[in-house]
Every structure is written in structure tokens, then in C-alpha cells.
Write a structure and sequence with these properties.
Length: 455
Amino acid sequence: MAADSAPSASAPARDQSLLRRVVAASMAGTVVEWYDFFLYSTASALVFSKVLLPQMGNVYDGIIAAFVTYAVGFAARPLGGIVFGHIGDRLGRKHTLQLTIMLIGVATVLMGCLPTYQQIGVAAPIALVLLRFVQGLALGGEWGGAVLLVGEHAPDDRRATWTAWPQAAVPVGNLLATLVMGVMSGVLSEEAFLGWGWRVAFWLSALVVLVGYWIRTTVSESPLFEAARSEQSAEKSAGYGVVEVLRRYPRQVLIGMGLRFAENIMYYLVVAFSIVYLKEGLGMDTTSVLGLIAIAHVSHFVVILAAGRAIDALGRKPVYLAGAILGGTWGFWAFPLLGTMSTPLILGAIIVGLAFHAMMYAGQPAIMAEMFPTRTRYSGVSISYQVTSIFAGSLAPILATTWLRDTGSWVPTAVYLLVAGVITAVAVLMLRETKGASLSELDAADAARRERVPA
């Protein structure tokens, strides 16, 4: 009797061990990729306008130019989502993620090797833009694979809890980027920091990329994906890729983009534009600004994990809707708090802003995974997530900095965020509640739908 019960008793433990290994692999790579991506964000606000770009008429013009090169990465992300989503749906999540992590690592290290504008002229910003495009291309394929690797292994009733972990890796990557840049700017003179100090942060990417790549070799594909791949081999009508997603699931793609809109705008206003506003608009020194941002990233990590649990307990829609509504109000009270130049009030405004963001961000992997069948899931979530970044996160710091330059006021930025919050709230209301949904049942429904409406 005891012998019969042993396997069933040990099975949950094996499942938990496998799931933890999958989460570790997903997080390791995600930390690396977002470290690289956000390192560029910080450098755009502090370095590139002075080193790799031609000098502009005033400080804001230089920062806007740097943010424009920053936006190139966002423009590349949908292409990366299409390319790597297609590969991931066809060949697997694991190998796709190994490719994306190496790609972004090489691009980041090469950024640290670029000659300055004074040394090679216009070739410097051209090379910077090309490498930024490669970064964006890789990141476009990273997010979907990382969260699906976890989501397809996770139990139905705790999918948001587990997929919140790779989401929480984003502030960890940003924290590392902020700390490295903060330390270098703090221990070096401004001349040394602009001369070579900032490059060290980019070169360190090589080390963390190798660690992340190795960890990702230790995981396997989910049984759900293996079953879907077998079905694709046996059934010609079981298509995959972006064309199939847009043909079969256009409504889900549009809702996913709407969900992403306010969240994406809010994040880059809080973590990128706030650096510009505090440093250039209010005169706070670089090390102090980066220190406050670093503390906020720690709190963001914790809140994302808590929000993931709340989403499994309360449902996807209530938590997300609260985040969209509260996030839409942030600019109207946060910017006055930043203007007080009080360290506790500034820190509080940033922490609360990221908490509102977490209420939206934590649930995205579970919600989007539950929108699409396994055979098209990588493409579906990647397109929904990455296309939005072109007209949301990429434009947010550019518009906010432009409005600050032209009007000297934060009000246009606050109104902008409020409108974004309304758009996302509408998308949440259109969403079908999928708390506890079975991905296997979703695949079965997809197969039945293909029988009724063949290719």
C-alpha cells in the first residue's frame, strides 16, 4: 500500500521542483535582457546626449534626441515578436529564448565599445541606432517566451502567481542597471564617468548573459507545447504564427494591446521621464535620483509578486481595472510631490506609481496566455505586448520631455496618462474573466473551432 502511494505523493514535489527550475530559467534570462534594455534608458537620460550624439541647443533637445534613439528599440520589438513568436510556436520556447539572450548581450557589449561622436562623427549615432534595433529585436522575442515557459508549466489556479515571477524580474534588471550606473557616477568624476565609466555597465552584460544562457539550458518544453507540436505535425490545418493569430483571434489581440497601453506609458514615465524631470527640471544630482529609483525598483519587485497572488484570488479583471484607474490619476498628485524636493515624498510618489503599475503588469502573462491556444500563443502574446510599445512606452518619455521643454509644466503629461488609463479601463471591461482557466480546454475549444471553420 505504501509502495503504491509513494509515487502519487512524490509527484507534486517533482512538479514543484520542475516549476521552480523553469521560473529560475525564465527569470535569469529576463533579468539579463531587461538589464541591457533599461541600461540604455538610463544612459539616454544621462550619457548619450553628451557622448554619442551631436550637441544640441539645450539640454532637453539632447535628451529628446537620445530618447528618439531609445524609441528605435521599441519599433524593433514587434518585428522581434513576429519573428521569434513564429520560431517559438514552431520550434519551441527554450531554444528561442537561448537565441534572444545571446543576441541582446552581444548588442549591449558592442554599445559599450562605440567611439564617441567627437571621434567618428555621425557614424557614432548610426551605430548606436543599429545596435539599439538589435536589442529591441531580441527583446521582442524574449518576453513572450519567458512568461509562457512558466505559464504553460503552472497549475491553472496559480498561473498568475507563478507568471508574476518573470514579471518581477523586470525591476530586478532595471535595479541592476540603475545600481551599476549609480555606482559609476558616484565614485567617478563627471569627466571620468562620461569618458569611460558608463561603458563598464555595458561590458558587464557579457558576464550576466553567459550565466543566464547556461541556466536556460537546464529546462525542457512544457507538455502542452509538445502536444501542440505533435498536433501541428499530424494536422495541416493546425497553423501557427502571426497570420494565424490575426485571422483567428483578432479581438484578443486588440484587447491585449488595450490592456498594455496605460501600463506601458506609466512605467516609462515613472522610471525614465522622472529621471529627466528630477535632474534637469528640478536640479537634483544624478546619484540621488538613481538611488531613489533603485529603492523603488525593490518595492516594485515585491508588489508584483503580491499582485500576482491577488489576481489568482480575486480575478483578473478587478485588480487590473483598479490599477488602470488609480494609475491614470498618478500624474496629478505625483508631480507636485516631486516638486517639493523632499526625499521621502519623491520616493513615495515613485513607489506608489510603480505599485499601481504592478496591479496591471503582474497579471498580463496569465491573462494573455489564457487568450490564445498553445499553437499560436507565443505569437499572440508577443504581438499584443510588443506592438503597443511603439505608440505607448517609446513615445511617453519623448512627449513628456517635449512638453516639459515647451511649457515648463507637468500638466500635459498628467492628462496624457489619464487618457491612457481610460483606454486601458475600457479594454479591461471588454475582457472575459479567465481566472482558473484550463489551457488544455482552450486548446480543445480551438481544435473544435477549426473543425467548424476550417482554413
